[in-house]
Write a structure and sequence with these properties.
By secondary structure, the protein is mostly helical. 75% of the residues lie in helices and 0% in strands.
């Protein structure tokens, strides 16, 4: 079971991948008109990043709720 901190990091990574990938995809579509190889590289890379982010959403859904962190007793 994952802790709340690990889940927050995973959620942050998911959104960075999705939005970064979509930004690269759109940038690639605009660059493709003038520099085709670079444009296609950006489109492909952006699509892959967005797809990885979307796949991580399903992984996060299967992880469930965060486990309660146990305080350490120092006796």
């Amino acid at each position: 079971m994952a802790t709340a901190t690990e889940l927050k990091r995973l959620q942050m990574l998911i959104w960075v991948l999705i939005f970064g990938g979509l930004l690269a995809l759109v940038l690639g579509l605009s660059v493709r008109r003038f520099e085709a190889p670079l444009g296609w590289l950006l489109v492909t890379g952006g699509a892959v990043l967005a797809a990885v982010g979307a796949a991580l959403i399903f992984l996060r859904a299967k992880m469930g709720q965060p486990s309660a962190e146990q305080p350490q007793n120092k006796e």
